Amino acid sequence: MERHRAVARTRTTLAACLVAALVGGVAAPAGASAAPEPPAPGAEPPVECVEQTADQLDAVAVAQECGEDVEVLSARTEWQTLYARPDGSLRLEMSAAAVRTRQGKAWRDVDSSLRRTRGGIAPAAPVVGMTFSDGRHGAPLATLRREGHELRLDVPFDLPRPTVDGPRLTYADVLPDVDLVVTVNEDATGFSEVLRVETPEAAADPRLARLSFPIETSSGLDVVEDAGGFAARDGAGEPVFHSATPAMWDSAEASSLPTHSFLALGGTAQRSSASPAADAADGAGEPVGDRAVAPVGGEAVSHLPATVSDDAITIDVDQDMLTDPDTVWPVYIDPPVSGSLHQWSAVRTGVTPAIRFNFADTQGVGLCDPRAPGGDDCPSRYASRLLWRFAGLEQVGAVDGGHVRSAVFSAYGTHTYDCSVRPITAHHIDDFGSGTGWPGSALWDAQHTAHVNHKQACGTGPAWVEFDVTRAARAVADANASVLALGLATDESSMAFWKRYRYDAKLSVVYNRPPAAPTGPRTSSPPSACTTGAGRPLLASTTPILRASLADPDGDSVQATFEVVDVATGGRVWGPYTTAALGSGAEHAVWVGSGLADGRAYQWRVFGRDPSGAQGPTAACEFLVDVTAPDMPVVTPVETGLPAVYRENATGGGIGKRGEFVISAGSSTDVAKFRYSVISDAKNKELVPVAGTSKLTFAPTSDGMHTLYVEAVDRAGNVSAQRVYPFVVQAPGVVALWRLDEGGGSSLFSTSHVDSGPLGNRFPMTSSPYTSRAAGLFQELGIDPTDRALKFDSGADQAATTGPVVGIESSFTVMAFVRLTSMPTRAATAVSQDGGNTSAFELGLIPGGAYSEGPCYKQQWCWGLDMRTAAGGTQKRISAAWPTEATVGDWVHLAVVRDAQAGTLSASFCKVGSVEKGTVIAHPVPRVVTVPFTSSWYAPGKFRLGHGWINSQAEPTPKAYNHWPGDVDEVRVLDTAVPREDLVRYCTRAE
Fold first, then answer.
1. Where are the alpha helices (H) located in 398-498, listed in sequence order?
2. Given the DSSP bridges, would you call strands 168-175 and 765-767 parallel, antiparallel or unpaired?
3. C-alpha separations of 513 from 402, 408, 615, 836, 948 in Å
4. CA–CA dist 654, 646 (Å, integer)
5. Contact 453, 421 (CB under 8 A)
6. In whole angstroms, what is the distance from residue 941 CA to residue 960 CA?
7. Integer angstrom CA distances of residue 50 from 2, 11, 68, 367, 582
8. CA-to-CA separations, 347 to 291, 350, 472, in angstroms, rounded
9. Omega cis (within 30) before 576
């Protein structure tokens, strides 16, 4: 936990150091500086330098802060170690042999010593899970587990209880005078199983002629032949477990064998060449290695290519070796099994499979010549090369070749022919398998030659020899590969160049990826996105802030470099400016304090650089400086075709009455939007102009003084001067009143009252010349002797305005006194207003047969209201009606009320009665019918009395229809929904 707290402090401390040169989160212009403030009380203590962290980002930060390599624990495996370096690079260390193992969540040293467990016998701390038979019935010889896969290998005979000695198990007398010796590899990634045949008599057992080893795998593994051995491959074709070509060898010592007893290399058997005599010259004195694991030198060796079937690995034993009088007993027969990530082997001229390069063994490089001094241990004249295969290099394959800074291959040399310094060369070779033979690869690309001597007797060895294999590692990176194969070779013309090396070679790769391309490049104050060319944004500033986020794929901190150039001239006008280093992924910002001019186009560029100096790709963005504000907008009211006109400093319209304003940009050509508001000056609504103009539709919700505030905003964000447009919304009241008291003529005058007085003849009406007059209701009732009414006694009689009076999209009330002088033969309309191709509404008498339901259904006549829901062919009729006897000669008060707020439509029908003390008494009481009505549309036609209107496609001209056969008096239009109690008042009292 303390280590994790140290890492957290690292990030905090680094951040504090890195932002010391920032002003308000934005890097100041060149030359500006800011001294870091002293740490506040209770601040985090200085960073604690640690050797390892769990997270790569933390490791990078600590390495840079402390100046030491820091291991990245999350990248640790059994074979590899990753380090973050102070210069920002990463170093991947890979060992051919496993260097550690994981036990639960903890890492510990490999321990191949065996111990008895509940399930069998197992290594104390293996890299590859292994369990061996403890002699119980039915248990296979070995079960191996790696990466979720399992392989079980058995032997073709019963196993007794074994003896345990360190990493070795001995199953005695599995056949007469034949022991099975199992030895766990030094790095606990596999094991060798060797049948030790003690005597020729034991070798004559027919069960040794052919050995078939049963094998089983978990699902997902496929066992295939592999150049003489076998491999258990996963679904991706990668070997999870593998075996070199099985072999058998005798116990001959090189110094005890006559030269003529060695078989030719091309024959069935050959003598091995561990060269103990050469090692003795180094003071070794005895053969190197363990013969119960692999040949150590001088033995007769025979390779036994395996045959692989679905359930067994089979080998045919070399009978010639078993019957050869020169064979020295005991004889050893194996196949080994390994789950190591890496492979290594030796290849020799004249030998088809590779020589197994065992853990307890070393192998030679160069020419082994029995005729050379000290070469009497060579079975014949042959050349030898050593091969290593490093897998698991996905991190290297993920970078570009140019990002690999160095790669070093190290091999541990144990012997040289003499004390002279002679060359040895590391090569990049093709990938190989356990059965690859001479020359090991078609590719031998020399990487680096070292001139060495590592002979113990000369005081120079054993020693690690390092080779520069950078080009080979870069080739792996360029190919996006994960395997690097390397080979050692030397001059093969003389045994003077002969050298020996251990199996546990190492590979160290240092790589450093430059910062990634900047992300999210943008400007702020004012804001804009990153664009180039004709679509470049306009900035209303000569001192913008430039921003971009910089990340490093290796987690390094990054510095950002910004500059600005003039697009037209290509000359730099500001920068370059480099910010302080920030953590990977942080956003960098700089303020361009000078150098920009109005009307000029600029390109700004940004790239990142890590602590090693590696530079990432450049992002380029452009903008055009525009600090000129647009003209003040022009506001023009729409004068025709709408219910209302709202002129500047004038009274008009009304609550809910729709009007429009045209807003134009004047002479400005780059206006992007208009911002506006009504009443308040918030200007929190927007209109986007088309060809420089926009239409604003306005329907007041209150009367009185209103002010329209408008400003223009251009594409750069410059704001114009504010246009202030005051106007007055007329208060609700009588829009028009036609008393119809004219003694004659075709002109019918209207009056209207708002608050204090009349507004004059706003809606003059014209009647047909032959429309006559009759005594009005109030003349007949003795109230007003001058009262008259229009008499519609002919189908040609009509009266109409020149334009609309009622705004049916908002609330309104229309009232009239009417009476029938004769009964109609069809629907009769007393009051209407034209809509699209029919009347928008009609108020009058309707035959009951027009209804299929409701109170008028099956009635002869109904007082009724028809209202259309839309103009044209989409219209639908909504009706409100009440049954009536429709008596000729009776005066009736008709009214239609549209309440836009409530979404209703009402019709009132009130029969006028007698007069008492100057008041008209209604009998019966008014009938009010209300139906839902939410449609909203503008009826642009004439207001009519005495008939409806239709524009029939079958008629050459529009015609009047639904003629009213009677009189009409006192017609009122109000721009509000009159309450029900007021309808009663209008019906029962003269106004």
1. 470-478
2. unpaired
3. 9, 18, 9, 73, 85
4. 9
5. yes
6. 13
7. 10, 14, 9, 49, 21
8. 20, 9, 21
9. yes
| Residue 857 DSSP SS3 | coil
Q: Please determine, for residue 958, whether its predicted confidence score (pLDDT) is greater than 80.
A: no
Q: Which pLDDT score is estimated for 792?
A: 93
Inter-CA distances, 548 with 350, 557, 607, 897, Å: 63, 14, 9, 64
Whether the Cβ atoms of residue 809 and residue 905 lie closer than 8 Å to each other: no
Q: Contact 705/750 with Cβ under 8 angstroms?
A: no
> Do residues 831 and 844 lie in contact, with contact meaning Cβ atoms separated by under 8 Å?
yes
How far, in Å, CA of 482 to CA of 396, rounded? Answer: 7
Decide if 804 contacts 924 (C-beta within 8 A). Answer: no
Three-state secondary-structure class, residue 475: helix
**Run of H or E residues at 984:** helix 980-988
| Burial group, residue 47, by CB count within 10 angstroms (0-12, 13-18, 19+) | buried
Q: Which of 636-650, 784-798, 841-855, 908-922 has the lowest mean pLDDT?
A: 908-922
Q: pLDDT class for 284, splitting at 50, 70, 90?
A: very low
Tell me how far apart the alpha carbons of residues 775 and 789 are, in angstroms, rounded to a whole number. 6
Phi-psi region of 260 (alpha: psi -120 to 50; beta: other; left: phi over 0): alpha
Determine what percent of the chain is predicted with pLDDT higher than 90: 58
Q: Are 133 and 140 in contact (CB under 8 A)?
A: yes
User: What percentage of the chain's residues is helix, strand, coil (to nearest 5)?
Assistant: 10, 45, 45
pLDDT digits (tens, 9 = 90+) for 770-807: 889 999 988 888 888 999 999 998 888 889 999 899 88
Q: Give dist(CA 226, CA 561) in Å, integer.
A: 55
Q: Which two tokens stand for residue 183?
A: 């030895």
Each residue's pLDDT tens digit, 684-729 = 999 999 999 999 999 888 888 999 999 999 988 899 999 999 999 8
With 70 as the cut, is the pLDDT of residue 256 above it? no
Peptide bond into 330 cis (omega under 30): yes
- Bridge pairing between strands 538-539 and 619-625: parallel
Tokens of 691: 């060809």
Contact 420, 453 (CB under 8 A): yes
DSSP letter for each residue of 41-58: TTPPPPPPP-SEESSHHH
pLDDT confidence bin for 874, thresholds 50/70/90:
low
Percent of the chain whose predicted confidence (pLDDT) is above 70:
86
For the record, the structure tokens of 103 come out as 């036990």
